[in-house]
Design goal:
about 90 residues; 6-stranded antiparallel β-sheet; 10 Kd Chaperonin, Protein Cpn10, Chain O
């Protein structure tokens, strides 16, 4: 993975979302207009935390996050989400 030029501050986390599923479990192809927004991604970078909240995630962790969590960013043609650590539901 290429070095990311973004350094999150405080308790923020930069996540690279995983690709949306293109087929169902039974093999049907899902058109782009019907694809669900992915809720799983890989942590790319994180801030140092705050005095009240230490960082639980680290770079490389695969995480689950809320459906509408984070702010979408596009850096060098790659899509990322910037969110607070509290928006992350679980580490897989």
């Amino acid at each position: 993975m290429a070095e990311v030029k973004i350094k999150p501050l405080a308790d923020r986390v930069l996540v690279k979302p995983m690709e949306a599923e293109s087929r169902t479990a039974s093999g049907l192809i899902i058109p782009d207009s019907a694809k669900e927004k992915p809720q799983k991604g890989t942590v790319v970078a994180m801030g140092p935390g705050t005095k009240d909240e230490k960082m639980e995630v680290k770079a490389g962790d695969v995480v689950l996050y809320g459906k509408y969590a984070g702010t979408e960013l596009n850096v060098d043609g790659i899509d990322y989400l910037m969110m607070r650590q509290s928006d992350i539901l679980a580490i897989l």
